[in-house]
Amino acid sequence: QLRAQNQVLKKGVVDEQANSASLKEQLKMKDQSLRKLQQEMDSLTFRNQQLAKRVELLQDELTLSEAKGKKNKKSAEPSSQLSQEQKSVFNEDLQKKIEENERLHILFFEADEQHKRLEAELRTKLEVLEADAAQHQAVVDSLTRKYMDTIEKLQNDKAKLEIKSQTLEREAKDCRLRTEECQQQLKNLQAALGSRLEESLCIINEKVPFNDTRSNRYNALNVPLHNRRYQLKLRDLAGQALAFVQELVTALLNFHTYTEQKVQIFPIDSATDTISPLNQKFSQYLHENASYVRPLEEGMLHVFESITEDTVTVLETAVKLKTFSEHLASYLGFLRKILPYQLKSLEEECESSLCTAALRARNMELHRDMKRLTVVFEKLHTYVSLLALPSTKPKGLLRTNYNLVFTNIATSLHGFHDILKDISKHYSQKATLEQDVPTATQKLITTNDCILSSLVALTNGAGKIASFFSNNLDHFTASLSYGPKGEAEFISPLSAECMLQYKKKAVGYMKSLKKPCADSVPYEEALANRRVLLSSTESREGLTQQVQQSLEKIAKLEQEKEHWMLEAQLAKIKLEKENQRLKNSLSGHLTEAIQEHSALPNEAEQKENAERIPREPIKSTSLASIQSNNTNISLLKSLLVQALDVESREDLIKTHYMARIAELTSHLQLADSKSVHFHAECRALAKRLSLAEKSKESLTEELKVAGQNISRLQASPDELMTTKRSYEDQLSMMSDHLCSMNETLTKQREEIDTLKMASK
Q1: Residue from 211, 22, 235, 47 nearest 126 by CA
Q2: Which one of 355, 416, 697, 706 is separated from 678 by 20 to 30 angstroms, measured CA to CA?
Q3: pLDDT category, 247, cuts 50, 70, 90?
């Protein structure tokens, strides 16, 4: 097809090229004729311009001649005849020129119009032809590109297909080889599996007394596979349901409490008048609502706590559903108990003089809604009690009906939500009408607002629970197949409980298997290191003794540290007191000297003013006092210098003794550590010595036995020469070993003596 299209396209391209060539030639011819016409037009315009100039000159001459003729009319009559003849000639000539010019103008205009028309036609044809040529060229180029792309693509596909065919051939060869190998392996596996099957059947027939999966009663005791994802999902759903139930319980408590307040203030306010006995009883029952509503939350909490990651949660094992069902039954009994009083209270309110027709209609709607609410709770209790039956009475609900029960619960929850929406709407209309009552108080309006808010919360909670249950209905129904292997149900709650106990035991056994084994020393290594461990300085006894000694030393050092800390604190307190006393004495001396020094000139002035006494003795006394003050100041300076010297000397002595104490303590610690090390070495050498003595005793016993054997065998020397030689060799080796042992013992004794001397 591509080749045929290529031939057609080639023909079309050739035809278009021929047409374009012919059009180009026609265009050249038209351009030539256009140039000729343009030249003729240029010549005509030039000739026309010349004639126009000639006409203008002739007109100028005519005007000049007419002007001259008027002036010389009288004088030149004969010349006028000549001029008239000339005028007639000129006029004829001018008329001819005008006619010729007009004809030329007409011809030029016609030629110009024809040229313009022809040029426009040619231009339009040229544009059309150029557009066609461009379009054809674009088509040709696009087809050429497409053809080249197709060729390249086909070539690439051909190369790829060739490569693929080669690879497929190789893979086919490999697959043939693999199939042969697999067939061989299959034969081997079939033979092996057949032998293993025979062995397994023999073992089962001999060892297994019975198959528990054949019996439903026994199969129910088998632990199912643990589905952790299912348990986590179910716990998450139970947590969400618990949150919704808590929200619903809070809204129910608020609704019943605010209803009790409303009964006490409308239509008769209990603060101003006595309400009817019916409303009193109704209020008394409503006051007990918490004891019936709170257990719903507690029951749901117990259900949530019973669902853990390690358990198997199905209806047969959900024992806490029974408790929740009982709490729901008690709340249903509460609703049944208050329903007649609530209906009578609404009827009594309708009979009141304050009740209008619209308010009476709203009360009757609420009358019907309350009956529907109780009916919905009865349905919910029925279905929840059915769900609780498998954990108590397995034959009370068939497994095939589980899906239907869940669906009916979802439908009842949606009905509960719809009824609450109707109650909320009717009560909001009732509250609006009650505000228009003349005796409506602010307390009534506030109570109605609180009841409306509790109804809105109750409606929202019911809607959340209904949507939650409908969205997860598939999960609830699909999870019912979670049970023992080979069987889709538990026979009884007792078997489910036994299965959970077996599951706990299995979990404990698996955890014990997962515990890592304690690291142990290999037996050969332990035997090789036994002698080293017995004589090691790091043995347990030595280390325990060292630890005890170090603990005793630490306790003594702590006591000494506390003692010296107390001594240091006392010395510090005494030093502070001495410094304070010295400072006080020095400051007292300084102040007295300064006061005396400042009081001397004042006393001299007073004496000069008061009495007239000779001046010489006064001078002598003032000089004496000044000298005494100077001596006091010098004494104080010397005392300060001495005090500073004493402090610096005390600091030097203190630093010297502290350095000396630190040095002595370091030497003491070094000596203690050396003594401990020497003591440990002595104990180790003593152990080695005792081990060497034991080995010496064993060797001496062996030597005695060998000597006895030699003496016994000497009776027949010819027969047992070989054994004698061997025993002699053993004896020589044992004697050498004993000599080496004695040498080592002597060396160890010397080392012990030297260590004892060093420790002393």
Answers
A1: 22
A2: 697
A3: very high
Quote the CA–CA distance of 81 and 67 in Å, as a whole number: 16
Q: Is 486 left (phi over 0), alpha (psi -120 to 50) or beta?
A: left
- Which residue has tokens 């080889």? 177
Would you say residue 396 lies in a domain? yes
Q: What is the pLDDT of residues 302-320, one digit of tens each?
A: 888 888 777 777 777 777 8
Rounded CA separation 138/145 (Å): 10
pLDDT digits (tens, 9 = 90+) for 105-125: 788 888 888 888 888 888 888
Amino acid 168 reads L
Tokens of 461: 């909670």
In a domain? residue 448: yes
| DSSP annotation string for 529-566 | THHHHHT-TT-HHHHHHHHHHHHHHHHHHHHHHHHHHH
Range of the domain at 454: 227-482
Whether cis (ω within 30° of 0) applies to the bond prior to 614 is: no
The residues near 385 (Cβ < 8 Å, ≥ 6 apart) are 325, 328, 329
Q: How far apart are CA 172 and CA 249, in angstroms?
A: 72
pTM assigned to the model: 0.43
Q: How many domains does the chain have?
A: 1
CB neighbour class for 525 (10 Å; exposed up to 12, middle 13-18, buried from 19): exposed
Alpha-carbon span 240 to 453, nearest angstrom: 23
User: What gap in Å lies between CA 554 and CA 560, rounded to an integer?
Assistant: 10
Q: What distance lies between CA 386 and its chain's CA centroid?
A: 42
C-alpha 153/C-alpha 166 separation (Å) is 19
In 96-135 the beta strands, taken as DSSP E runs, fall at none
Listed in order, strand segments (DSSP E) in 663-758 are none
Helix 615-713 / helix 721-759 crossing angle, nearest 10 deg:
170
Tell whether 197 is covered by a domain.
no
Residue spans of beta strands (DSSP E) within 206-258: none
The residue behind tokens 């001999």 is: 206
**3-state secondary structure (DSSP) of residue 480:** helix
Model confidence band, residue 638 (pLDDT cutoffs 50, 70, 90):
low
- Which residues make Cβ contacts (< 8 Å) with residue 151, sequence separation at least 6? none
Tokens of 718: 């010819």
Q: Answer positive or negative: Cα dihedral of 518, 523, 528, 530.
A: positive
Maximum distance among all Cα pairs of the chain, rounded to whole angstroms: 214
Tokens of 422: 């109707």
From the DSSP assignment, how many helices (H) and strands (E) are in the chain?
17, 0
Q: How does DSSP classify residue 394?
A: G
Tokens of 491: 């026979």
* Of 37, 180, 196, 9, nearest in space to 112 by CA: 37
C-alpha to C-alpha distance for 251 and 416, rounded to whole angstroms: 14
Question: Which residues lie closer than 8 Å to 231 by C-beta, 6 or more apart?
Answer: 307, 308, 309, 310, 311, 313
> What pLDDT does 537 receive?
47
DSSP structural state of residue 760: -
379 falls within a domain: yes
**40 with 111: CB under 8 angstroms?**
yes
Q: Residue 563 class from Cβ within 10 Å (0-12 exposed, 13-18 middle, 19+ buried)?
A: exposed
Q: Are 469 and 409 in contact (CB under 8 A)?
A: yes
* Separation in Å, CA 616 to CA 598, 602, 612, 613, 680: 21, 18, 12, 9, 95
As a whole number of Å, the end-to-end CA separation of the chain is 119
